[in-house]
Fold this protein.
Amino acid sequence: MRIFISSLLILVSLNTNAAFGDWGKTGHRATGAIAAKHLTRRTQRAICKLLNGQSLALVSIYADEIKSDVQYKKYGPWHYVNYSLDKKYGEESPNEKGDLVQGIQKCITVLRDDTSSDVDKVFYLKMLVHLVGDLHQPLHVGRSEDKGGNAIQVKWFRDGSNLHRVWDSDMLDYYKMSYSELSENTKRMTKTEMEKIKKGTVLDWIEESQDLAKEVYASASTGEKLSYAYAYKYIPVVREQLQKGGIRLAKILNNIF
Ligand code: ADE
Ligand code: ZN
Ligand code: ZN
């Protein structure tokens, strides 16, 4: 009985932790680990020094960890950006409390500034690793009405979930690949394919995620049960997003350092 109750408590806490999250830990770590494979020697050295040898995978979930500390509450809106699917970023006035785009810009600005303290550089570097991951979760560039799909209840196999959470973590949990397995089993790419992914700016990538978000919104309706067929169709998309996130994070970092 004791064991039953404590496992029940664990299940309940797992569920609440996942609410309003991000790419689960696996997704963020995979993005960090993939980025690490694409850094120049010079960037590797600079980052290793700042992070005192910690890997990008390790620091990738720092931005989620600080959410439980009121001192860092103001960074909450940085994890996503919501605006109409038929608009481009900036056509509606951006959230004055900040958003994913402003957050990434701030990180880059601090890291590029020679007068920034090392403490600040470390903080914004950790934030950047995380936010470029979030940028590639399509529903982090979603609609405000449904909070990026958080308000669209669906079933994931037998369990209650929502569309946002299916994309954050349900699919990756179902897939059962560790972050290092994900990062070691990315799609082989030609130089041309790599260049195509690296091309563009943060705003171009936001637009690309919004395009994907439109497809994701159309992929399921409220109350629908999503299972094998959904996983089969969209896990390759999730994996591609993680790979793009890693490659683009490395591009940003190589440009900074
Ligand atoms: N909260 C509100 N909108 C969100 C979104 N698009 N992603 C994550 N959390 C959110
Ligand atoms: Zn999320
Ligand atoms: Zn996040």
